[in-house]
Amino acid sequence: MKYYIVVLAAAIIVTLFSVAQGYCEPRWTEWNRHCYRYVDHKRKNWTLASADCTKLSPTDDGHLITIDSADENKFASEWWITMLKPLQGQWQYIWTGLNDIDEDGTFVWSDGSPVTYTNWGGTQTDNDNGDCVTMAVKRVSDKGQWKDIKSSEKIGYMCEYTCKDC
């Protein structure tokens, strides 16, 4: 009988601790009070990917990833690379929320956040008249540099929402 009471008490404590600490929904990964999800099985253009992130999020603030620091870029690219292995030397791309759809050359995040950090690959930010920004990797050592491409391209994407209880 004591054994069952101890097990029950432990289960209650673990449950309370989990609720108090907060968590991300299944298939989402928590980092720095945000939850992230990589979607590749249904590649979409930027507009549909953005809408899908809203639908997939359990909160009302789901969106394509907003990267506001070198640390977040490092987390996102390294986490994403772990799901791509082996890379096989071919470029891989995912949509981010950064775009200049409304005004060419003026980049904004789809969630309305200010642009406080960038990680452009090379010196040009207007590749082939692209309006939407991707993160790109080719090798495990790549640092998730950004490239803008046409919004009609169908690629994977990374979604993000704020973890309310983390």
TrEMBL record:
Domain C-type lectin, first and last residues per copy: 31-160
Keyword Signal attached: yes
SUPFAM superfamilies named in the record: C-type lectin-like
Keywords, sorted A to Z: Signal
Signal peptide bounds: 1-22
InterPro entries tied to this protein: C-type_lectin-like (IPR001304), C-type_lectin-like/link_sf (IPR016186), C-type_lectin/snaclec_domain (IPR050111), CTDL_fold (IPR016187)
Highest taxon of source: Eukaryota
Coiled-coil annotated residue ranges, if any: none
Segments crossing the lipid bilayer: none
Pfam families: Lectin_C
Gene3D superfamilies assigned to the protein according to its UniProt record, in alphabetical order: Mannose-Binding Protein A, subunit A (3.10.100.10)
PROSITE patterns attached to this UniProt entry: C_TYPE_LECTIN_2
UniProt keyword Signal, yes or no: yes
Protein's recorded name: Alpha-N-acetylgalactosamine-specific lectin
Organism of this sequence: Holothuria leucospilota (Black long sea cucumber)
Higher taxonomy: Eukaryota, Metazoa, Echinodermata, Eleutherozoa, Echinozoa
